[in-house]
Amino acid sequence: MRKNAVVVRELRVVRGGRPVIDGLDLDVPAGSVVGLMGPSGSGKTTLMRALVGVQDRVTGTVEVLGSPAGSPALRRKVGYMTQDASVYTDLTVVQNLRYFAALAGRRDAAEAVATAVDTVDLGGHQKQRVGTLSGGERSRVSLAAALVGGPELLVLDEPTVGLDPVLRRDLWAVFRRLAAEGRTLLVSSHVMDEAVQCDRLVLMRDGALVADTTPDELLADTGAPDAERAFLALIDAAGPTPGAGPAPGAGPTERTAR
Ligand SMILES: Nc1ncnc2c1ncn2[C@@H]1O[C@H](COP(=O)(O)OP(=O)(O)OP(=O)(O)O)[C@@H](O)[C@H]1O
Question: Which intervals of the chain form a coiled coil (predicted)?
């Protein structure tokens, strides 16, 4: 089995004429759940977009499942859930999922759709038009669309936003199960009680890695009583003022673990 599902070296991304990621290195171990944390605007979505191959103005090496990010070979192997639900509001839940299953080349589409509906707990809404669903339900359709192809790597941008605590807990159980099957998950979140359920944690600030660690190491290294305060301690220690963005030619990223 491959050691790392994702290998990023010297990643640099320019958006709006300025570098929003500058010289980032990252390994995502295969078969693990990696949490991507960081303040708003720190570059999490940009990093995810670079991994799935939809981001312009990317330099450096971004290798996903052994191929360059965005390669046609990866289309069926990578599932991506964007922050805003990216499903068709004028189609029903099942119509959406059939469409995404077909795109992913699933021959067993009916079974894949049924499994995805079940996984995100949308039974009873299959024939409902997505435009009439609640926000939380709609975001779960989006998650199901990322899952329905049976991808090896799932890149999930804040998949639990707007969900109630019960659903959040259930979805994290799903993420753990998918990892146990050998899939790799990169999950962004602002919720630190979710962070502690990850195998590894990647903390970003201003387009750079502040830490690449584990929940236990995060607490041990900072001496903080909980993940939220540990995260704040690292972010505060990282220096630049919020929203400043990385300076062009900024030095190498600091890693607190590994
Ligand atoms: N289309 C764009 N044009 C110019 N700048 C952009 C664009 N998209 C994002 N940015 C900038 O890039 C930086 C990183 O944004 P990104 O969306 O990756 O952050 P994030 O960590 O995902 O934030 P959040 O947690 O709020 O979703 C921000 O400073 C943002 O303003």
Answer: none
